[in-house]
Structures are given as structure tokens and as C-alpha cells.
Amino acid sequence: MQNAATVLDVLRERGGRGLPLERLYRQLFNPQLFLMAYGRIYANKGAMTPGATGETVDGMSLEKIDAIIGRLRAETYRWTPRRLTYIPKKNGRKRPLGLPTWSDKLVAEVVRLLLEAHYAVQFSRHSHGFRPGRGCHTARSMRWWKSGKEHTGSSKETSPTASAVWITR
Questions:
Q1: Which of 103-112, 117-126, 133-142, 154-163 has the lowest mean pLDDT?
Q2: Which residue pairs, CB below 8 angstroms and at least 24 apart, start in 107-111?
Q3: Which of 134, 114, 136, 115 is nearest to 124 (CA)?
């Protein structure tokens, strides 16, 4: 198996050239990607919260990763229904929250790594929604020009049109 960083670099390069994804499912058989995904999510606050099966990050091992890969290879892996719990909101009401199992979190993170590597390079540099290191605060720090007038993106101004020119501060 290839190194996880090499796999992601190849996907980034293919995405940058606009080439299609091919045979992506077999990359789910790479244990290095699972270890990289584990390293990204094990320290999250929700890692110790049990899902529907009671499984947490404590039970993770290379044998468990091999078992997940074996089920993916045999196409018998099934997502477990989330455990539904209700958490309080500021207004006193409660909202539903689905808690996935640790295995589902891990597989989802591997899929996210693969898809993000390919598609992130295709996004506009002005796109700020749901991207690593970007969000509404970085979008507000952008400046744009329209009709010779500088705008900073404050809520009192109109949003830019497709013909607006963006510059970064």
C-alpha cells in the first residue's frame, strides 16, 4: 500500500488538473489512511462519547482497523444508526443530536480526507463555506471592488456581483 500522504498528493494533483476520480473505493483499503484519520479525530471532545454500540476511541486498535477494512473489501460494511439524544438550547428547548459509532466516525473521516484532497483544489479561492481554515470570519476579511468603490463586506453593504473583483487584505 502507498503512504497516505502520497495517495492524498496524487488525488490533489489529479483534482488540480481536472481529472476524474478513478478507483477511489480501493483507497479505503489503505490502513495508513485510517491511521491518519485516527490522528485527526481521536482528540476531539466527542471521541469518548459512545454511539449506538457503546464503542469509543478507547477500543481502537490495528486489529479493529483491519476488521473494518476487511468488511469494506468484502462490501459488507454497514453504517450503524446513530444514537439519538437531546441537548438543551439557549431558549430552554432541546434539539436532537445523533451520535455515531467510533467506526463510522473513522470511515467518514477517511472518506472526507479522500474527497477533500481531490475537490479542495478545484474550489474558488473566494469560497469560504465549510473549508479548512476558512469560514464567515475569513470571508468578512476580504475586500472587493465594484463600480470603483471599495467594499469590505460588512452587512450594511450589498453583496458583490459576479463582476466584482476580489483582493485580499
A1: 154-163
A2: 107/28, 107/68, 107/72, 107/77, 109/37, 109/40, 109/41, 110/28, 110/33, 110/34, 110/37, 111/28
A3: 134
- Give the pLDDT confidence of 42-67 residue by residue, as tens digits: 888 878 888 888 888 888 899 999 99
- Note if the pTM is more than 0.85: no
Question: Which triple of cell numbers denotes residue 139?
Answer: 470571508
Neighbours of 123 (CB within 10 A): 14
Those residues with Cβ within 8 angstroms of residue 56's Cβ, 6 or more apart along the chain or in another chain: 47, 48, 49, 50, 102
Helices then strands, counting H and E runs in the chain, come out as: 5, 5
Q: What are 165's strand-pairing partners? A: 145
